[in-house]
Design goal:
single chain, alpha+beta, Multidrug efflux transporter AcrB transmembrane fold, Alpha-Beta Plaits
């Protein structure tokens, strides 16, 4: 039988250490690296007409926008996002690309300006969505299981979100709207994994009335951890393949990979220990 609950301080310590590193990175850099969708800026789509060397094109783009983020939409199309990328710079960039790669006159497929007001609305709506999702899950789990299970599940979900944001802070990855969609997806996936363990704990509570809550949790985790790990691993393999083979969706798949890995960790090492702590305090 796995002794998970007895090492609660270790599991909590690992998470606290990672979060502390992330906070240090945010303080050092002056906050998170908010992308175009949250701070406003310009997004353009360019048709290169044929396959191209992305590294070479990136070097040209960086001359006109240091903060530019480029993504290949397919073999011939390139998307460029930058916070300070006015029309003059776009024109100069297109002129150089046309001369170097013999692009067509209509190579600039799209140019979109994103204002700061739209970004503020997006941030507010994202936070509201996360709040509603958390409250709805707490109510469901409290009714379906018990209130302590609900609190433990929400703590695990918050852990997944904070760790995902922390990783973004450590590696200075830009945050854009796909990140919010990914976070909501992570919440749904992680809560499902946690409920599997909680359901087993509830069943074992009825069979093991004379043992401690810690032992019930250890037995339940031992019976379900292999299923949780295999499920998360197969999902991660699929998403990683998509991340490698479909570059245009990396802003969505990268936080998914981080969040699902965190969800597998928190379901076993965070949610159950928190439940035991709540039961013992009661």
């Amino acid at each position: 039988m796995l002794k998970i609950i007895e090492k609660t301080k270790l599991w909590f310590g690992i998470s606290i250490l990672v979060i502390a590193i992330g906070i240090g990175a945010m303080v050092y850099r002056g906050g998170l690296n908010l992308g175009l969708d949250f701070q406003g800026g310009t997004k353009i789509t360019i048709d290169m007409g044929a396959e191209f060397n992305k590294i070479e094109v990136d070097e040209i783009v960086k001359k006109y926008a240091d903060d530019a983020v480029t993504n290949t939409l397919n073999d011939t199309q390139l998307e460029v996002k930058a916070k300070e990328f006015d029309s003059n710079k776009v024109s100069e960039l297109m002129k150089e690309l046309k001369e170097k790669y013999s692009l067509k006159d209509d190579a600039l497929l799209n140019q979109q300006e994103i204002g700061a007001s739209v970004s503020a609305d997006l941030t507010r709506n994202a936070l509201i969505s996360l709040g509603i999702a958390a409250v709805a899950m707490l109510i469901y789990i409290a009714i379906r299981f018990e209130f302590n299970f609900g609190v433990a599940a929400i703590v695990a979900l918050l852990h997944d979100i904070v760790i995902t944001v922390t990783v973004y802070a450590i590696f200075n990855i830009p945050l854009n709207t796909p990140f919010i969609v990914a976070i909501l997806t992570i919440i749904g996936y992680s809560i499902n994994d946690t409920i599997v363990i909680f359901d087993r704990i509830r069943e074992n509570q009825k069979k093991m009335r004379r043992v401690s809550h810690a032992e019930v949790a250890n037995v339940s985790i031992t019976q379900t951890y292999f299923r949780s790990i295999i499920t998360s691993l197969t999902t991660l393999i699929t998403i990683t393949a998509v991340n490698v083979l479909v570059p245009s969706v990396r802003e969505f798949t990268v936080p998914l990979i981080i969040g699902i890995a965190c969800g597998a960790y928190s379901s076993i090492f965070i949610a159950s220990p928190v439940w035991v702590m709540l039961k013992n305090r009661k």
